[in-house]
């Protein structure tokens, strides 16, 4: 092999390595919420698509202020029956074997939860640790499976100042695996329900809901307000990764508010957000909308 040929070969190898590093640096994950529509299919089916790296089980919708905590997974299972939702443990384990993180999302958009004090927050934290994470309890709603973390989707209720204590309680857990803390704040900054919790710096991932909020949602005709909001989130919140939260279909948002067509997300939104070292990927609401619309399939290669 001549010197010129050798130099050319080395240049090609260097270019391929460089492109691989750039691709891996900019690459993000797709996160989806599952559990609020029985027509979305099973959790195993969701994970078998190969489209998602994180699945949030939605929701633990009743907790705090003296309430008995309870799951609401639409028609997937009845948490009040004898077997409750324990059959989901098989699905969850199947997902985890594929390297997919399964997170318990607490809260949601319906009244039924709140925190009344720091002690109340610690009690809720202990319940979550013992019933869904690495602790022990005779009444684990999802069986013996250990979830990967807890997602704060706090949109209603009261006691916002106490969610920081809940985050601290969950972060103190010293089990056999890491407990990921994630949150889904509304895009107006700071989020009125989660500003205290997010200020703790204990969260790993934050997926901001850039929809259903006129002042900061993504609109193809005017991306300036979204870009301004994104810059504020990534420059202010102490967190490893921040994700762009979007509805997976027009019907998944209120009056299509904040729905962005996939071609706009790929050509205009992703190139902008990928400039940040905190870019984590895209969060979709929800699996049913995505299954109907094929949103994640269309954007997967670009995320």
TrEMBL record:
Residues 28-303 form the GH18 domain. Keywords: Carbohydrate metabolism, Chitin degradation, Disulfide bond, Glycosidase, Hydrolase, Polysaccharide degradation, Secreted, Signal. GO terms for molecular function: endochitinase activity. This is Acidic endochitinase. Its EC number is 3.2.1.14. Residues 1-27 form the signal peptide. Its main location: secreted. It catalyses: Random endo-hydrolysis of N-acetyl-beta-D-glucosaminide (1->4)-beta-linkages in chitin and chitodextrins. It is an enzyme of class 3 (hydrolase). InterPro entries: Cts1-like, GH, Glyco_hydro18_cat, Glyco_hydro_18_chit_AS, Glycosyl_Hydrlase18_Chitinase. Belongs to the glycosyl hydrolase 18 family. Chitinase class II subfamily. It comes from Medicago truncatula (Barrel medic). GO terms for biological process: chitin catabolic process; polysaccharide catabolic process. It is found in: Secreted, Extracellular space. One of its GO terms (cellular component) is extracellular region.
């Amino acid at each position: 092999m001549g010197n010129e040929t050798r130099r050319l070969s080395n240049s090609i190898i260097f270019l391929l390595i460089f492109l691989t590093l750039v691709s891996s640096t900019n690459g993000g994950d797709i996160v989806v919420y599952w559990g609020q529509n029985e027509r979305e299919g099973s959790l195993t089916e969701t994970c078998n698509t190969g489209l998602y790296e994180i699945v949030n089980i939605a929701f633990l919708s009743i907790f705090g202020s003296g309430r008995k905590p309870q799951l609401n997974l639409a028609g997937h299972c009845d948490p009040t029956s004898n077997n409750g939702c324990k059959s989901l443990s098989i699905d969850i384990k199947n997902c985890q074997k594929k390297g997919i993180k399964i997170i318990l999302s607490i809260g949601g958009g319906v009244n039924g939860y709140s925190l009344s004090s720091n002690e109340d927050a610690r009690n809720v934290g202990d319940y979550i640790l013992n019933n869904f994470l690495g602790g022990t309890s005779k009444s684990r709603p999802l069986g013996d499976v250990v979830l990967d973390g807890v997602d704060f989707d706090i949109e209603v209720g009261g006691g916002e100042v106490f969610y920081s204590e809940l985050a601290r309680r969950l972060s103190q857990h010293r089990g056999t695996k890491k407990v990921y803390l994630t949150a889904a704040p509304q895009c107006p900054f700071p989020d009125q329900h989660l500003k205290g919790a997010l200020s703790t710096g204990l969260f790993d991932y934050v997926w901001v809901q850039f929809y259903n909020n006129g002042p900061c949602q993504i609109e193809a005709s005017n991306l300036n307000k979204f870009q301004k909001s994104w810059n504020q989130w990534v420059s202010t919140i102490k967190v490893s990764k921040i994700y762009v939260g979007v509805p997976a279909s027009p019907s998944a948002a209120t009056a299509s508010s904040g729905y962005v067509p996939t071609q706009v997300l790929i050509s205009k939104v992703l190139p902008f957000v990928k400039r940040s070292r905190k870019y984590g990927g895209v969060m979709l609401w929800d699996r049913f909308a995505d299954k109907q619309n094929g949103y994640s399939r269309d954007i997967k290669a670009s995320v």
